[in-house]
Specification:
heterodimer; A: 117 residues; B: 151 residues; Mannitol-specific EII, Chain A; 41% helix; globular
Chain lengths: 117, 151
Amino acid sequence: MNPQLRVLIALQDILMLLRDAKDPGQKRVLGKIGLKIDKLETLETTREDLENQLSPSLLGEYRRATERYGRIVAPVIGSICCQCFVRIPSAIDSADDRNTSLYRCENCGMFLYWVDK
Amino acid sequence: MKLSEIIVPGRINLNLKATTKDGVLEELVNLLGLRTPVRDTILQTLRAREELGSTAIGKGVAIPHCRSLVVSKIIVAVGRSKAGVSFKSIDKKKAFLFFLIVAPPVGNPPGDYLVALGTVAQAARLLAEDKRYKKIRDIRQFMKLVEELEA
């Protein structure tokens, strides 16, 4: 996997975790199960550490995209970009370097990650 | 949804060797049979989740869980440690039974993910109260016990 793509995915997972942790509805459900969520500040530190691993230009793109859309990477499942639901051109979808090079959706601009079936 | 419907024998390990929380997470993630970068990404997110608060719910049960972009469907792995592992549980006791849940990011609110978590937690409590899971020797017996308790 492309190292920068890996960092972007890790960041997106962390952002999702933060959103989930702050969601009152989800907190309530998890609380009923016995799962407590606190110490959000440690997650912010993890996020900062990951952000520091991005190149300056990618960091700028990441900040703009997450501010606007809440994400920067879209999973590709069955040749479809899961952000905009547009089919990925077959030349890209069948490329040998999927996930090892950085590809973007030509329609929505998200970086693409092809998920294993 | 039932636990017996979402667990598969290949993702059950009744003889976890790990003696630490992180070691248990690694062994559980290894059960998912993922490529190294994907495995590492999930492990990183699970560790971040544990930083928010332990996923051990007491009575010897822990449910490490996360959502990650690298999976396309909910996957569950089960592990049992005979000696037990300190997992910073709310009752301060060791955890013996572990249920790993990894779900895709789709869904807002993430309905299926929370349903899976609830299902696993309910089945885990039944197993913990029953206690037979501690003596079970093979995966087939474990699956049978889960089906019996969920019936």
